[in-house]
Amino acid sequence: MTIDRDAIAFTVKLESDGNKGTLKMESMMSSATLTLYTGENVVLKTVEYAGNNAVTEDLTGCRHDGGVLMPQQKTCTEGLKYKVCSAEGNLEDGDCSGQGGVCRIDPSSKVTQCMQARRCALVGPMVVDFTGAKGRVPDLCSYTLLTTPSFSFKAELRDRLRTDVGFLHRLNLTLTDQEETTVYTIGPGLQVQKDDSPVELGAQAEDGAPSFALNGASWMLIKVPFKGDSVLAAYDGNAVVSFSAFEEAEATSSPFEGLCKDVSKVEEERDDENSPESCEEVQEQPEDESIDCPARTKLCDDLLSEDVVSGCSGLSNYRSAFKDACVELQCKYPEDNLCSFIGGLSNLCDAQTGGASQESARCAGHGCGSALCRDSEFCQASRCRCRAHVLKAFNDRDTVCEEQKASVSVPLCLLTEKSLDEEDLHLNEDGDTCKGTLDEATESLVFSFDHEAKCGTEVKVGEDRIEYHNQVQFDSSSGSGVVSRKSSFSLGFSCFYSQPALKTISFKTKGAEGLQAAIKGSWPYEVKVGMFSDKQLTKPIDFSKGVRRNKMIYISMETDGLDGALLLMKADDCYATDQEGTGGLKHPLISGGCGNSQDSTIKVFPAKNNKGTVMRIKMFQFKGKKNVFLKCKMKLCVASSPGCQPDCDSADSGNRKRRRSVETHMIDEDDAGYFVLRL
């Protein structure tokens, strides 16, 4: 062909023989550039001409798929395979399986070549590393999954339906350069934060910064720039993260470290600095005998079939590791996690092909995507459920009984599972003071009652305790309308005062009072016993000098920690004896809360503020005996109940007129429940 441009002419001659071709160019110009294009307007070759000499160029090449390959040029066709044009212009088949792994265009050089594929995944507690080996994270700590000199991915694990099986809770990406460190937190609900500030998904990333984009409703794709290429992480915001990276086929060492490189180094890769305290101390649970392991094994085998990785050559060993990990987890854990394994393996395939797998029909609706749960919850099939340790703490709960107040906590996650609102629950009485109070730190509702806000508290009197009982409740049959989609709820809780069970008090011989804690029950209180020479209880007796016979003394038996308006402590039965143990002589002092009507020197009256009993007695001595012991049995009673405060004056009025000499007789009863004073 001859081209005349501005009266300056040059001639181009093309000759071809099969796949071979030759171009000759002559021109009167001192220099010229000729660019040849294919039919698809793709540059085939650029020819530079200088001087008056003719230029000859070799245009040998190969036609493929509507385009042209020059000699030694490759193009990827399927996974590990490629087409290459030989020096003679012949199109030949190639395979990367023996040259590193996959056929891929190197983003830095733009050259198609065989590259080493690095693949890794964390599914629940199971890890499949670069070599296809599987392992298990044994606890609920933080672990380094993948790290390089410029970035690292770390996983935080939490419990779900079992306290001894951890699942991915949060993914932390840290970028490090010479000037600063940047931390990205990717948490439940596919929420991303950069140094505690929200990150917009899909936004254009700055140079050198990672990008975050949604892939459908259930997956997030994270691209981290690395050596002119990118490391790709796929995260479902719930339980699975998979990593894909590529290196030159000739690379002799890898820049990657972490569990993805070697899953056997679990101890070395635990991140103690960022792990919760005692996270390695797992609360083991018994095996779940309801799990049909053979049936679940067959499911793992059937669903993790070759179809999942069809078109992804080189993933067969990963599929086998995924299947083994699936069986190990499915035979231990009650929740069906098959879709997590399918999703994790599919994403490794997608990273290789650049495509997007279709969601398995079985897994439709199983993802959580942007579903956001509380810290005490986890997501399962777009529903928020209580974590195992929260339910265990609730089932092992104790009512908090302190300062005459009873409290119990109900986890908010339990309300979510039962489709209840915070306002639905109340105590026996439904009022503002009988509703729960939100405790944000523990993510729970706290219900309580005391002597002022009783909220319908019931009092039950038993032989060994007085119990105050209430319950957190919701009746699904209440309210307007004829239908209800909420569950009924009833949680009883109580606090009690134990009846005193004192055995012996060693009375202080120098000092004002003897003090002994009387209670082992839920609400603590104390009994104070003192001896005084005056009714006002202001003059303690000094026993170091002894006490004369016929001296009137006042014995105070009071309580500290009881509300006198509700409960009274009374001396129910007291007597004097000549022996510290059982047996011996006995002289009755108090019976049924009243003084011995046959001994006019004995008087019983309430202590100040109704906090106990004061007994007046004139000192005496058993004939022929050296020691006198006072034994008393105390009793709690409800102040408003009949008989709690006996009318001793009325009972004594007739008896004292017929006063007779005091009789002493042998003891023939057990002393259990009495306290003993040596006089």
Protein architecture, described:
The chain is mainly beta and about 675 residues long. The protein has 6 domains: about 1-60, no CATH class; about 70-115, no CATH class; about 115-275, Protein Transport Mog1p, Chain A, CATH 3.40.1000; about 295-360, no CATH class; about 395-500, Sandwich (Immunoglobulin-like); about 515-520 and about 525-679, Immunoglobulin-like, CATH 2.60.40. About 10% of the residues lie in helices and about 40% in strands. It is built from 7 helices and 45 strands. The strands form 11 sheets. Strands 12, 13, 14, 15, 22, 23, 24 and 25 form an 8-stranded antiparallel sheet that branches. Strands 16-17-18-19-20-21 form a 6-stranded antiparallel sheet, with no helix packed on it. Strand 41 and strand 42 form a beta hairpin. Helix 2 packs antiparallel against helix 3. The radius of gyration is 44 Å and the shape is rod-shaped. Residues about 1-10, about 480-485, about 500-520 and about 655-675 have low confidence and may be disordered.
